Fold this sequence. Notes:
The complex is a heterodimer. By secondary structure, chain A is mostly helical.
Amino acid sequence: MSLIKDFTKGIWKENPVLVMLLGMCPTLAVTSNAENGLSMGVATTAVLLGCNIVISMVRNIVPKKIRIPVYIVVIATFVTVVEMLMAAYAPPAINKSLGIFIPLIVVNCIVLGRAEAFASKTGVVRSIMDALGMGLGFALALTALGGAREFLATGSLFQIKIIIPWSVDFMLWTSAPGAFIILGCFLAGMNKLNMRKAVKNGEVYIPPQGLDCRHCRLCDIGVEEEIE
Amino acid sequence: MKKLKETENILVLGIFLGVCAAIAALVLAYVAKVTDEPIKKMKMQEVNNALKEVLPAFDNSPGNNIYKKDGVTFYGAMKDGKLAAVAASGKTMKGYSGKIVAMVGLDLTGKIRTIAEVDGKKLSAVLITEQKETPGLGTVVCERKRQKTIISIFEKPGKDAHLPANNKILDQFADKEAGKTPWQVTKAGGKFDYMTGATISSKAVTGVVYNIAHTFAVNRVEIIKELSKAAK
Lengths: 228, 232
């Protein structure tokens, strides 16, 4: 039972992008279309899986003092392996558009975060489930973001035009500002859904740290609620 | 094992990290060795695909019949033991995001080849093989991508589906010969159209195509001689 929970928590409850706000660099940079988002998600999942397995296997012998450098060595190795494999076997178009972002998986907080928070404390099987769940959550979030941006910009999904008369691209969504706007909308929607669910169950909803704007006093949103 | 986990002996820590790095290096060396061949093949295949599109039918492997001159790589296509056409690949750093690499098919007089005529419009043998231009602006100048729609994926491919898609900017160069004056876009006083919003990309592409054609025109005799020789 807990194995299934380890797997599913990454997809919604602890989604690395939409709840934990980790790995924003690849999230914002590569999601200009759904295909890129999906392939980045798959590449990260492969790295995550390999790292979680190795780190959970060596967790009892790695000295505490140097655990972070050791994790980084493991992660960097897997990323380089994935990079070489992609250059050798992936379709050239995907390899070209993702090429500069693959090395950045090394510093993707999701991988190091899962190594430190999960794999270094639990056994191999649970770590595998965790990696698969987190990777799937990451890939889904990236594909959804990329799909939304691609659709709003060109009316197509996975490079296939859905709305045929759409002839002029709306460049805002595929450029950096569009990435922030769409991500903001996704986060707000996620918060809203979780809040509604919490209210239905009669609980108090506490937004994840960094997603809650009520501690900031720049504007009045949320102040009244608190006073009440 | 417990001891190793809690150790603070700096020597042990150093050795442990060193062993980790050594294992990582071994794994990487092995993977690099295994993937070396496929990566080379992949790159070669990309070049060959581009060559196939810009050259007429040939019976040698132009990817191996190479002559380099002034930063431009020339590929010779042979047909029945004679040099039939030349493809040339050159680069410019003047793109909006730096490097643009173009592959151009030339006939032996130095004219840029026309691959085919579709609906009365000439399709030039100019391909951009590498670029990092802004998606949606600069890429419009550079890409020959066939638009897929939700209807077209269910339809039978048309009779010119094997040809690269047309591109207003790149197709202007069909049948052009490089003279002494460099080609310019109309904005800079030349005669070539450019794409609004992607002037820099258009200029860079015009410049690199001219540079390739001009290098060939100037060194024509030498290049033809060298490429014909390699085949024998």
